[in-house]
Structure prediction request, 450 residues.
Amino acid sequence: MAFDNLSDKLQNIFKTLRGKGVLTEGDVKTAMKEVKLALLEADVNFKVVKKFVSDVQERAIGQDVMSSLTPGQMVIKIVNEELISLMGGTTTELSLNPSGMTVIMMAGLQGAGKTTAAAKLAGKLKSKGKQPLLVACDIYRPAAIDQLKINGEKVGVPVFSMGTNVKPVDIVKAALNQAKANNNNVVIIDTAGRLHIDEGMMQELEEIRKNVQIDHVLLTVDAMTGQDAVNVAETFNERLEVTGVILTKLDGDTRGGAALSIRAVTGKPILFAGMGEKLTDLEQFYPDRMASRILGMGDVLSLIEKAEAELDEEKARDMARKMKKAEFDFNDYLDQIRQMKKMGGLASILSMMPGMGGNLKGVDLDQTEDSMKYVEAIICSMTKKERSNPDIINPQRKNRIAKGAGVDIAEVNRVIKQHGEMKKMMKQMSGMMSGKGKRGFGGMKFPFRF
Prediction:
């Protein structure tokens, strides 16, 4: 996850500050030097780092902080506020024409995830009641048109294309005519990218901008390119008047400096963040929530929104009913795993939990995710009868299940044992809910191992 290293370093710095009952000016300056180094290592633009540290230090050395009963916490509060300000202060929504058509042109370098981002955005807007049309104008990259068509089909959005022998500006004009005829109220143009910025690419984009009424130019920036992303954003903005940024691959193992630099350098807001490979993994960018993640405070609001969007409300009610009756079979077990996968997996969920960053040291999340896959394979190898009534699973059945899942029989035994432990926990919880139980919740175990 982006910012993991930065988050760890900042938390260590602030741990030292919190441990001091009284802060001196020297303490603050020493901490700010460490913050400066941490930000530079995260590939944040040098000028941005310099101003950020100066602003925090100026506020942190004020009388209110020094005389506070919790000066360490006050400094952290200031850092949090300045981080939010650095990334734009408030959330910027993508403005759409309330009546008529909104035309959006995607721009960016090849490999930044522009085509995928276009489909993600189209799917997001469709889920909000819009009728988008995707336009394939990348006539150079092999299979770019096919990729857009496949992704468009997945999100249920039509794709307009005219092949590779037509000028992009003519494709756009024809697409707008079709959009009017079919009542599409949002048109998203996927343009060509290059491995680096060149004059030919810019002229092509400028020609579209000049001949067509474009409402938004959204620049797709790969977070993994770090400070280079800021240089790219500056050049595109100078030539095309970018209106907003989509930051992709923020779920990757990146330094994340682009997210902290782009707004400050270009003045253009980050509208969305790509947080995964699925076509639903495009999140509204919230500066305050991102600052909270960076400082290890979690992002509970995003976690709740993700749960509301992905989890089945009826299944949740059914699970509550089963908990009251202490019923829990392997079908429920499988549902739990699949619901978690819908929310982006264990790593995604834990990254939004307050204070989890430092507590996950030494935990192999990849291995844990693999373990979940094995559990799913084991349950899927059971018959309907076995899932509903685990008590009938004898040694002979276990052998068959193990072979079907491609695992050792010991893994099957472990899953069955964990299921039994979860049923016991359900009984304890049922007792507590009825007011009869006096015992605790016991050791709740996930359907996978830490």
Observations:
- The radius of gyration is 26 Å.
